[in-house]
From TrEMBL:
One of its GO terms (molecular function) is dioxygenase activity. InterPro entries: Extradiol_RC_dioxygenase (IPR052537), Glyas_Bleomycin-R_OHBP_Dase (IPR029068), Glyas_Fos-R_dOase_dom (IPR004360), VOC_core (IPR037523). Pfam families: Glyoxalase. It comes from Gottfriedia endophytica. It comes from the Bacteria. This is Ring-cleaving dioxygenase. SUPFAM superfamilies: Glyoxalase/Bleomycin resistance protein/Dihydroxybiphenyl dioxygenase. Gene3D superfamilies: 2,3-Dihydroxybiphenyl 1,2-Dioxygenase, domain 1. Residues 6-130, 151-268 form the VOC domain. Keywords: Dioxygenase, Oxidoreductase.
């Protein structure tokens, strides 16, 4: 049976590009590994943050667009995004978030203690200590490698039809159900990062796409050959996946599972160094070949942004 290693990336909607960079790079210490544009709407940035190389399982991406309306987190969406931090670093992160005025709370699921907070646009985030996953060697501002976010821990899905979403996780993506606790059902993949999915079993309000919500979640495929096998399987199971789409840094298919959540399956290769060296990741606006002729026009229309050390770290 096909089995995904876990989360490939997660993409969300936000309003302001510089504020987004200041939070995810400046406060959370993630590396801006790619600055490009939304291939479907080239007037909007597509910003990618991750570990030092932007490895699959570490990358959160954003469409920052000032004109979009407010979203509402609810059914048919990824409700909560969890990041893994090294064991023993929770107090560092609690102090750091509070230093930058981020309100934090704590909660426990399946015996694990989570630090919960929101980003400036209202996305619900968590930090969880785990041994799993390689250390992130990237250091920036006040975040050194020994405390740096490793990548994703997992997600909480708000499904409109939990049994349908469960079926996709188990019988298409190859997750294993490892238990239920109160209102959560937990699934785990075979990977060592981005490997935990919790389904929230209690009904909630219907989600609305917009600022402060997740647009889609992508699952890992080893290569294009495996991606095509998943596409065939989805069709056999009665789903309607897209054709394979070229995203420069990976190839992908998309489909809506019946709980309302937009799923993507994306290939691990070729990765973010296909058009930039590892040392220069995120420094320049990178465009697909078919938009290179419009570089001057796009650079003029897109807002000026920079990765900067925040005042609290100087």
């Amino acid at each position: 049976m096909l089995k995904t290693m876990g989360i490939h990336h997660i993409t969300a909607m936000v309003r302001d590009a510089q504020r987004n960079i200041d939070f995810y790079a400046g406060v959370l210490g993630l590396r801006l590994v790619k600055k490009t544009i939304n291939f479907d709407r080239p007037e909007v940035y597509h910003l990618y943050f991750g570990n030092e190389k932007g490895n699959p399982g570490t990358v959160i991406t954003f469409f920052p667009w000032a004109k979009q309306g407010e979203g509402r987190i609810g059914t048919g969406q990824v409700g909560v995004i969890s990041f893994v931090i090294p064991n023993g670093s929770a107090s560092f992160w609690e102090n750091r978030l509070q230093k930058f005025g981020v309100e934090i709370t704590s909660n426990t699921r399946f015996g694990e203690k989570y630090i919960r907070f929101n980003d400036p646009d209202g996305l619900q985030l968590e930090l969880i200590e785990r041994d799993e996953g390689p250390m992130n060697t990237w250091s920036f501002g006040g975040v050194q490698s020994e405390n740096a976010i490793k990548g994703f821990g997992g997600v909480v899905l708000y499904s409109a039809q939990t049994f349908k979403t469960t079926d996709v996780l188990e019988n298409i993506l190859g997750f294993e159900c490892i238990g239920q606790e109160n209102e959560f059902l937990r699934f785990k993949s075979v990977g060592d990062i981005g490997n935990t999915v919790d389904i929230h079993l209690s009904p909630s309000i219907r989600g609305l796409m917009g600022v402060g919500t997740v647009h889609h979640i992508a699952w890992r495929a080893k290569d294009e050959e495996e991606l095509l096998k998943w596409r065939t399987l989805l069709i056999e199971k009665g789903y309607y996946p897209t054709e394979v789409r070229e995203r420069n840094y990976f190839k992908a298919i998309y489909f809506h599972e019946e709980g309302g959540i937009l799923f993507e399956i994306a290939t691990d290769p070729p990765g973010f160094t296909i058009d930039e060296s590892a040392e220069d990741l995120g420094k320049k606006l990178m465009l697909p070949s078919w938009l290179e002729s419009k570089r001057e026009e796009l650079e003029e229309s897109l807002p000026r942004v920079e990765v900067r050390i925040l005042e609290g770290d100087k």
